Amino acid sequence: MRPSGVGTALRKLLGASAVYGLGSVLVRGLAFLLLPLYTRYLSPAEYGLVALTVTCTVVLGMLYPLGLRGAISRTYYESGTVEERKERVGTLWIAMVLSATLMALVFDRVGPALAAALLPDVPFHPYLRLAVWTAFLGVLGLAPLVLLQARERALAFVLLTLGAALSTTAIIVWLVVRGGGARGYLQGALIGAALAAVPYIALTLREIRPVFRLSILMPALAFSLPLVPHALAGWALEMSDRAILTRFLPLHDVGIYSIGYQLGAAMGLVTTAFNAAWVPFLFGTLKEEGEAAHPKVARLVTYFAMALCFLGLGWSLLVEHAIIIIAAPEYRDAYRITPWVVGAYVFGGLYLVPTNLLFWRRRTRVIPLVTVVAGAANIGLNLWLVPRYGAIAAAWATLAAYGMLLVLTWWSAERLHPFPYEYRRLGLMAGLALALFLTGTFLPFPSTTLEVGGRVLLWLAFPFGLVLLGTIDRTELAVLARLLRGRTERPAEQTGTIR
Q1: 66: alpha, beta or left, given left = phi > 0 and alpha = psi -120 to 50?
Q2: How do residues 363-378 score in pLDDT, each as one tens digit?
Q3: Contact at 8 Å (CB) between 476 and 302?
Q4: Fewer CB near the terminus (10 Å): N or C of the chain?
């Protein structure tokens, strides 16, 4: 089989990423559109309470399935027949549900003591108890979503997740507007998860044979269990900043920090969409072409980094003025948090590249070790800096921790098997983005209008700067422009610029 060129591969990857990205934009965009409503009906203290509880839901959702979500994806590609795949996925799904049930019951029992020790400002009942069972319901939808991704059925994946998000959001808004406060928000999330579980279970039962075989489960656990410490360390990366903030600052400040963090986490739209399309593309390409595909994959990584730098630069420059429209006046200072979180999410997006290579090579044991180190660094930096500098220090710590996560994961993957990244291009585009951001941040402007206009120009200068630095040539820009417009020509493959 003749390996496809970078232009063809990029066209395929962009098509899937566009669908996944549209779904992510709609789901998270809905949350952004509702920020004015939430900031009107929820005080900063209530929003801080919601943010802490939702973070607990996410962390529990990582713990419950024992890392078997990733094993399902791998199983799809390794199964020889449809019947074998149904048995394997059935075993893994049953194991995830049993594990989630047991853990939820345990946390429901010991939760009050844990909450008093770890989050003294957040009552276990009703807030954290709602998190325990919302996370449990979320596990029920993992298998069908993973299978849709593995089959590269991006549209079905997006429609399913978007439907669940819309119904959940509608319930949350109704309860919050009726004066439910933080409790109403979290109750709405639980009800929405319960409604979404019904079609998820129905779809799962169509795709599995409900058997439970230890001969299938044990090798899968050998692959996935090393990821459980990774999930625990994920708690340190995702939640420790807000948990530590509650020990030194009031919930009011936690709420403002959480809004700034959420605005910065908009970069997750890009990384989530990319990774959802990237995993099946990468695994399928490496299976078909082997190491011959490495230069092509490395070029696509460069384009991904370019997109992250461009979008992250624009949002970091403009968020100070965008927040005036997005949030209520008492939340305005949240913009100071956002650029640091944007940088962290850029690092987090790039981290996915060596991580997926480690997944492919079945070297997952190194992933939790690296995450533990980065998570511990985040906790340590928060404990050291937050008492001295306040909430902004938590954002600094987040950036540093995700940077450490990227560097250590890259180093671990390279030590096991070097990969031909385009280091010069990556370094130049990162340096250019940083220089433009610092210019826009510290350059004095005589008026708000000129400041907004100047920052927009600095943002749009990024691709032109790449051309001037020789980081990307005009032919590549033309190819990318045609791909983004959906044209079918293949000038890159004709000219040989992108191979």
Answers
A1: left
A2: 777 888 888 899 999 9
A3: no
A4: N
Q: Are 242 and 315 in contact (CB under 8 A)?
A: no
- 3-state DSSP assignment of residue 386: helix
Instruction: Give the Cα-Cα-Cα angle 143, 351, 315 (nearest 5 degrees).
Output: 100
Mean pLDDT of the chain: 84
H or E stretch including 476? helix 474-484
- If one counts every other C-beta atom within 10 angstroms of the C-beta of residue 303, the result is 20
* Residue appearing with tokens 């980081």: 471
Question: How far is the C-alpha of 144 from the C-alpha of 167, rounded, in Å?
Answer: 19
CA distance linking residue 253 with residue 249, whole number of Å: 6
What average pLDDT does range 447-458 have in this prediction?
93
At a CB cut-off of 8 Å and minimum separation 6, what does 294 contact?
Answer: 419, 420
Q: Is 488 exposed, middle or buried (0-12, 13-18, 19+ CB in 10 A)?
A: exposed
To which residue do tokens 């422009």 refer? 481
Type of residue found at 202: A
CB neighbour list of residue 140: distance below 8 Å, 6 or more residues apart: 97, 197, 200, 201, 204
Phi, psi of 121 (to 5 degrees): -85, -5
Q: Which residues of 398-411 are buried (b: 16+ CB within 10 A; e: fewer)?
A: bbbbbbbbbbbbbe
CA triple 142-148-151, angle to 5 deg: 140
Q: What are the residues whose beta carbons fall under 8 Å from the beta carbon of 419, sequence distance 6 or more?
A: 294, 297, 298, 354, 357, 413
d(CA 288, CA 293): 9
What does each C-alpha distance from 412 to 106, 142, 326, 368, 408 come to in angstroms? 35, 29, 41, 12, 6
- Is residue 70 a contact partner of residue 355, using CB atoms and an 8 Å limit? no
CB-CB neighbours of 360 under 10 Å: 16
Structure confidence by residue, pLDDT tens digits, 166-194: 999 999 999 999 999 999 999 999 999 99
Task: Report the C-alpha gap between 368 and 373 in whole angstroms.
Answer: 9
- Helix (H/G/I), strand (E/B), else coil: 374: helix
Q: Which two tokens stand for residue 393?
A: 């220090």
C-alpha gyration radius of the chain: 23
State the CB neighbour count (10 A cutoff) for residue 376: 16
Contact 378, 397 (CB under 8 A): yes
Which residue is listed with tokens 């593309």?
281
Alpha carbons 493 and 499: distance in angstroms, whole number = 6
8 A C-beta contact, residue 463 and residue 476: no
Cα separation of 343 and 313, whole Å? 9
